[in-house]
Design a protein that fits this description.
The protein has 3 helices and 6 strands; from the N terminus they run βααββαβββ. The protein is of the alpha+beta class. The strands form 2 sheets. It has a 4-stranded antiparallel beta sheet, with helices on one face. Strands 1-4 form a two-stranded antiparallel ribbon.
C-alpha cells in the first residue's frame, strides 16, 4: 500500500496548499464544482510516475491537478509479502469554482 507522508490529512493539506484554485476562473470556467480525476503510479521507492488525467473539463483544471501531484514528495510504500513493485492510485480532486476559487480534495483510491 502506498500513502502520502503523514497520511491522508497531510495529503489533503498538501493539495489544498499547492493547488491553484484560481486556474479555472483565470481560464473562463463557469461557476460550479468540477471533480478532476487523476491516475498515477507509486513505485516501491515512493516515486510518482505515469500521471494522467481521466477527466477532461478543460480550463486548465486537469493540468493543475497533475502539476501538483507530480511536484509532490515521495510517498511511503509498504508491501507485506505480496511482491508488489508499484501501485496504481487514482486521486479525485474537487475544484470548486466561485469568484475566489478554491481547491478541495476528495479522496485517493488505491487500485
Amino acid at each position: 500500500e502506498a500513502s502520502f507522508p503523514g497520511g491522508d490529512s497531510k495529503w489533503r493539506r498538501y493539495l489544498e496548499s499547492n493547488c491553484n484554485g484560481q486556474v479555472a476562473s483565470d481560464n473562463g470556467a463557469p461557476e460550479g464544482t468540477y471533480t478532476t480525476v487523476v491516475q498515477f503510479v507509486v513505485d516501491k521507492e515512493g516515486n510518482i510516475s505515469d500521471v494522467r488525467s481521466l477527466t477532461n473539463h478543460g480550463y486548465g483544471m486537469e493540468e493543475e491537478a497533475m502539476r501538483v501531484i507530480k511536484k509532490g514528495p515521495k510517498w511511503a510504500f509498504v508491501c507485506i509479502n505480496l511482491g508488489l513493485f508499484k501501485l496504481d492510485c487514482i486521486c479525485l480532486i474537487d475544484l470548486i469554482q466561485f469568484c475566489t476559487g478554491s481547491c478541495v480534495v476528495g479522496q485517493v483510491v488505491k487500485v
